[in-house]
Amino acid sequence: MSEELTRNDLKRYNRHVILDEVGLAGQEKIKAAKVLVIGAGGLGSPALQYLAAAGVGTIGIVDFDYVDLSNLQRQILFTPADIGKNKAVVASERLKQLNDSIEIIPYAERLTTKNALGLFQQFDIIVDGTDNFSTRYLVNDAALLTGKPLVYGSIYKFQGQISVFNYKNGPSYRCLFPEPPAPGTIKNCSEIGVIGVLPGVIGTQQANEALKIILEIGEVQSGKLMLYDALTAMYSTINIQVAQQEIDRVKAMSQQDFELMDYDLFCGIKNELSEHEIDANTLRSWIDAIDIRIIDLREEWEEPALEGTNVERITMNAILHQINRFITEKKVVLVCQTGIRSNQVRILLEQEHQLNNIVELKGGMESYDKKG
Amino acid sequence: MTYSIYYFGKITEHTNCNYERLNCELSTVKGMKEALLKKYPTLRNETFKIAVNKNFIDEEILIANDSEIAVLPPFAGG
Hints:
heterodimer; A: alpha/beta; 2 domains; 8-stranded mixed β-sheet; B: about 20% helix
């Protein structure tokens, strides 16, 4: 795409062009820039909107996930009509409506060690809007290996963190947190909730950092961890030092080493099932089995629905109200949305009745829904 | 010594506050970590970093009186 600004561009980006810090040359840099946004969710939505509106010439969007009704509270690119559609594809369509003079490339696939390096090489800046640790470490390492600056943002309930990693030999995510937390200790938004405005604040800051990198203006938040608290409306900044051994360890990886890395294993979330757990594949094979009861603990509105002749719905509330009357001869599979309710109910049932024929669906229906 | 301690993210679910003043003996970052684990035993399973006056410092450095301490867990949400 030509970096030269058209007449239409000059009009469209006038409020940029008349800024001394941007000017014609700056807007041309924005037009020439290629930004890859990983995750078109809470952070990705606002980041993408501002990057597209600002005229970033090429925007890539990676997301394998599908729009869900519960996303709309904060993922402002989507409407109810988009439910069930791929997020990268819908986001790309929406952004084209916003700005048809830029190139937008949706990648409706999961970011993996196999495709990350090739993808990152095609872009100048990576924006991390993912929602789990294994992808965050994968993104950090791929950005280090391809030498791309990484605009990091993450959120928890009412608080957010922002930084720029791998920028001009600055620190990387591993300099801040070399090791991921123990599996299951830090929940994501779908498990613990998040105030809808928060990803808007943080994702917008990420777009701002990306634009500062492109324009080479201001103070890029490299070597700084910016913290925001939506409840106190306070920002604070903590300095991050380079931990060279962490960076060197990643950079020592060959492409093949990286492709063989198992980030799920590294983050301890490999499907190691306990004796009380089954995975989605096992549940699929147990649908309609006459000697097994599958109990769906969810409310009626929760999706996706689970159907089968041996599936019964007893909501968590209902089962807790009559827990002393729950009798079963058959093996029972407890199913909920994320695996939290089924875990609680299994433990309570076992305590109440000394039952040992109860298992739960690990990760709940969200794991059932997302194959691969 | 008196330290001002700010807790972030999930750490506040263990401390039930996001800020407190802590009176204790002169301490290193390592000592501070141990003191926090003693006060809040359930923190043991959490990953967090301790910043002193907006910097991550060596675990063995003594923390001056009146320092501002931040207890930071990683976030994954997006």
